[in-house]
Amino acid sequence: MKNAFAWSVRREIWEHRSVWIVPLAVAALVLVAFLLGMSQITGHFAAGGFKTLPPEKQQLVVVMPYGLTASVILVAALLAGVFYCLDALHGERRDRSILFWKSMPVSDRTAVLSKAILPVAVIPAIALGVAIVTQAILLGMATVMLKANGIDPAVMYDRLPIFAMTVSLIYGVAVHALWFAPLYALMLMVSAMARRPFLWIVIPVIVVQVLEKIAFGTSHIGAFLKYRVMGAMTEAFAPNAMRDPITSLSQLEPARFFSTPGLWLGLLAAAAFLFVAIRLRRSREPL
Q: How many domains does the chain have?
């Protein structure tokens, strides 16, 4: 069972190369963009105005490029996970490969769970590794550029909380993976059920909000959807983490996150969606 699951996960990675190509491609574009704009970054230090800024503003100037780099890579990985889930079970019916895989000694449960583990664990882990390496490269580029302009890099390092940023990044990736688990599971279920998974996700979301607004004049569904998308930030971090880069471990609130009902109800919903997806795969035929 363990070997079958491990090989199933490897197969998903081999067949869906976008799960690692997308983060790498975005990281390359980010590095090119920062390389082109590196003179502006070092200009903050060379102009002499940096030392006149308050300490918190100095830290913001230094940290912002690294936080932005990680955010862009992780958002791209999130989108890759969304499109993967929408196509994972639908794609094998479309290309009729489901006939081959059902002839193999791999259960529907193993097949579905191996697909579910990619957006919840594998893709976030890949994106995390790419983000950390990209930040390290960016730090090296900035160090070289500062030295080339006759500026001591210690000015930058003094305001760069590398340990806190790295821990916060790992923590942020983990809490978002758990928080988004029900959304990924829902998309997998729809992928096994519908001929047009994307439309079956998008159209009902729009229609139910419009109907609620017309019938009751309220926006409870929209508020719930917003909470399901943004809730990881509001529940797992201090309020100021939504506005500025995270520079201190005091901005992390794991106790509040792991005690919020939204997390555990979401994981229960994810289990239910995956159960339905497994049952659907057993009865589905090629398109």
A: 1
